Amino acid sequence: xxxxxxxxxxxxxxxxxxxxxxxxxxxxxxxxxxxxxxxxxxxxxxxxxxxxxxxxxxxxxxxxxxxxxxxxxxxxxxxxxxxxxxxxxxxxxxxxxxxxxxxxxxxxxxxxxxxxxxxxxxxxxxxxxxxxxxxxxxxxxxxxxxxxxxxxxxxxxxxxxxxxxxxxxxxxxxxxxxxxxxxxxxxxxxxxxxxxxxxxxxxxxxxxxxxxxxxxxxxxxxxxxxxxxxxxxxxxxxxxxxxxxxxxxxxxxxxxxxxxxxxxxxxxxxxxxxxxxxxxxxxxxxxxxxxxxxxxxxxxxxxxxxxxxxxxxx
Length: 314
Ligand SMILES: NC(=O)c1ccc[n+]([C@@H]2O[C@H](COP(=O)([O-])OP(=O)(O)OC[C@H]3O[C@@H](n4cnc5c(N)ncnc54)[C@H](OP(=O)(O)O)[C@@H]3O)[C@@H](O)[C@H]2O)c1
Prior knowledge:
It is built from 13 helices and 13 strands. By secondary structure, it is of the alpha/beta class. It has a domain at 5-152 and 185-212 and 271-285: NAD(P)-binding Rossmann-like Domain (Rossmann fold), CATH 3.40.50. Bound molecules: NADP nicotinamide-adenine-dinucleotide phosphate (NAP). NADP nicotinamide-adenine-dinucleotide phosphate binds at residues 10, 12-16, 34-36, 39-40, 56, 75-78, 90, 113, 115, 149, 151-152, 159.
């Protein structure tokens, strides 16, 4: 594979850390702008990686960051708006600014992270903003590739880990949209697809749904997490009215677990009913092969033991 310079927006996040690690191990030079170097400290020691504190919403900064790059990857995304208009600003405006910056800097290759069911006419603000951003990338005239994953799992995920935490703390789980369906995909497989696509001309102008091998109902995923962690809790399935009320209450808390917009996204099952794209040359990893490695009590214990041995005596 040719060595490239790749700018990764959102490189400090859950998916980003896996994409960046693979880029670095393939000896690509990687530039990661972040709002906080502290948040990206896990990447600083990787060879060939530059972590830069920068405001990526500033067009001049974005042009400067992309100058001399061979490819740009946009992984920036949010699940909740802190202020009205955040979805548009973070998903749509930023995608537009990145395309403009790539045009100014002569960066030909653009890889864009979207989401399954993204659609300008979708049922939630999240999916509509992701869909509009996709359309913008597809009309940009670049050598673009768009990825549309279902929910992504892996050691640092916020989805399964959130249920693990809730089940540890609560005597039962009152679950909104218990029958919503997902086809969880492993973060390592998603990162593999991004890195393979960089140099593969056949992926230009293509959108890829990224899903794992199995479809699960939300209630089955929560039950599975409880079984793995040793905190099996009764699941109280909520109907549409109570789901909405719960989301309304939760969305007013800081760092909300759930919002009415998230509920609206779940109106459409996050499943693709298709195989992992052949072009990436892998069979998708099953949830059962990975989740026990970070959710089981033994895995949690060994992580704490490791941290303890790494902590200098105080
Ligand atoms: N995780 C999933 O299950 C899943 C499923 C489908 C699609 N996706 C999409 O995959 C992408 C990555 O998801 P993730 O789970 O890795 O997310 P994450 O861990 O929350 O990371 C998000 C990244 O976006 C950056 N970011 C967030 N808000 C920003 C803002 N207002 N301005 C600038 N940068 C901002 C953060 O950078 P700094 O904090 O360092 O500045 C961070 O690196 C997103 O586009 C998401 O929509 C994720």
